[in-house]
Amino acid sequence: MTLPEVFLIMLGVALAAGILSGIPAMLAIAGVPFVMALLGSMVGAFDLGFLNFFPARVYGIMSNPLLMAVPLFVLMGVLLEKSRVSERMLQVLGQMLGGSARGMAVSVLIFSAIIAASTGIVGATVVMLVLMSLPAMLQAGVPKPLAAGLICAGGTLGQIIPPSILLVLLGDQIGNTYLEAQQRAGNFAPDAVSVGDLFAGALLPGLMLVGLYALYAFAVLTIAGRAKTAMARSVPAPSRPPLGVIMSSFAPPLLMILAVLGSILAGVATTTEAAGLGAVGALMMAGYHRPGRGRALVGLGALAVLALLVLRLMTTGRAGTGATWVAALLVALLVLGLAVSVWKLWRADVLSAATEDTLRITGMVFGIVVAASMLALVFRGFGGEEAAAHLMRGLPGGEWGALFIVMGLVFVLGFLLEAIEIIYIVVPLLGPPLLGGDISPVWFGVLLAMNLQTSFLTPPFGFALFYFRSVAPREITTRDTYLGVAPFVVLQLIGLAIVIAFPSLATWLPGVLF
Amino acid sequence: MRGAVLAIARWCDRLTAWACAAALAVLVATVLAIVLLRFGFDTGFIKLQNLAGYAFAVLLILSVPYCLARGGHVRVDVLSERLPPAYLRGADLVALVIFLIPVFGLMVWAFLPDLRFSWAIREGSVETGGLGGVYLVKTMIAVSGGLMIVQGIAAVLRPAGEQRP
């Protein structure tokens, strides 16, 4: 074993200790490698000149156009949360399917899937689900562990169902790593991997997970239901809400998701552009739901956004003069609606609260990204890339062996670290040997995303559990929560196995679309 | 002394918050403008693309000290939540001295030669017909490094239990 390899192992151990010490993780991720580099340079195992590249790398992150979508998606999610659009949806859903335990469980799942597509913020979704649906589920006779598991697992769906911030970050990392690895392997014209590819690839596996959750919940409730049918009967069947209420609470968010996701998948907008549209759409939706004057203007503005999208789809390639006038009118309506909306939200203090949250979350994400660039630099300085490639070549089973090792490592890391940290540590460090081969990068990315989604569910540091614990009533113990989540972790692994066995689940849709 | 540092940190944070909020607003508005121009009128301007990029760059790098000032960076507290609060304050002090100040000091110090050059040529966008002012965006890296150190020191000096800004 060479001296740099000894330092690489020490780096790994010290990094784990640093992160577990309870200091902000970004400080450990940047600081531990820095100190190791200094120590290494004292014995001649590290060339300190490497560290001079750190600011240039930070500037590289700042000028990465892919990452621009992240704050915009965060803003969109935060606005939807603050505007209570999602709360209304859940209420209506509960009324539609409520009453029976199975109906409640299914409605919570449907809602989770929709909200996952629109916000994708784990904490917000879990807290909202606990406050809004937990009492109703328990009352309808859903056992405590199942209710806890459904809420925690449902809250993490936003990580895998596109558009998702996690997939944007994964797309950035996998895209870069894949390009470099392929070129090093002698393929100088590899097909680039885009965030759009990952979005398309994750769609079917994400929906499949929802299906798995539903099957499980159904099975458990059917077995439990046979034991005590009498109890479920005692809840009166609710009256169905009128169609108008259903439409007004569901149509806007669903249309917005379709517009954002559709414009990316149809290739008419980049991820950043779609995220910008989503943020503007969320601004208008929030403005519309605020009581007060000017709702009609906001509504018109929102319709103008959709009309513009349709216009774009119809007139691409042939610019008619008439279309320009229509477009000008639509833009005017949109700007007016947006202005009214922003004014209303400003007056109600929603705008400043949403901005604060957005900035804080953005800082949290990019703090880790910036810190990880220091880690990657030092890893490279110690010759870590060659060491990792060498290590993986020595594994039994070739590419498959390496894939299983990486997946296993990510799963284990998921117990301790957060998804973003794992992406920026594992993909650039261990990805190159894998992505240099014939493995489909989209498939690999989707597998990683599903695996990372699980990290939000695994105790002790699963974010979903964390948020659940902070708002759930005392009568649901930590034991209930862990017991309830365990089957969902297993479901997650089953889902992972299915996608490993049938890679076309992930690769078929991107192949058709792009 | 402690009061003075905390007051400076508070002022720095207020400025950071305004700069971040402005950058976010510019980012949203510019991206919207780009989309509208392209969808409605089939045109676009490189300068507008550049502006969105600059706004994002400033937002990204300044949001990190913004988050630090609010104690918003993720901590893994599986172990530390079982230890007395004094432990965490000690750990934070150590992290400040051996991690935060050196790393972000390096981010400023190692960048100065580049920055000096960037200012000397008044560096602009690499695209022809692009927007000038890249040297101002790059300056934010050094500013952010300085802000991180200020907010890090303030967080350690701040008495336990006192409200963060």
Structure notes:
The complex is a heterodimer of chains A (514) and B (165). Chain A has helices at residues 3-20, 25-42, 54-62, 69-82, 85-97, 101-118, 122-139, 144-156, 165-184, 195-227, 229-233, 243-265, 271-289, 295-315, 321-347, 350-381, 384-393, 398-413, 419-435, 441-455, 463-471, 478-501, 504-513. The longest helix of chain A is centred in the middle third of the chain and has 33 residues, at 195-227. With 514 residues, chain A is an all-alpha fold. In chain A, helix 2 (25-42) packs parallel to helix 16 (350-381). Chain A is 78% helix and 0% strand. The two termini of chain A are 46 Å apart. Chain A is built from 23 helices and no strands. In chain B, 74% of the residues lie in helices and 0% in strands. Chain B has one domain. Chain B is built from five helices and no strands. In chain B, helix 1 packs antiparallel against helix 2 (46-69), helix 3 (85-109) packs antiparallel against helix 5 (134-157) and helix 4 runs antiparallel to helix 5. With 165 residues, chain B is an all-alpha fold. Chain B has helices at 2-41, 46-69, 85-109, 112-120, 134-157. Chain B is elongated. At the A-B interface, helix 1, helix 2, helix 3, helix 4 and helix 13 of A face helix 1, helix 2, helix 3 and helix 5 of B.
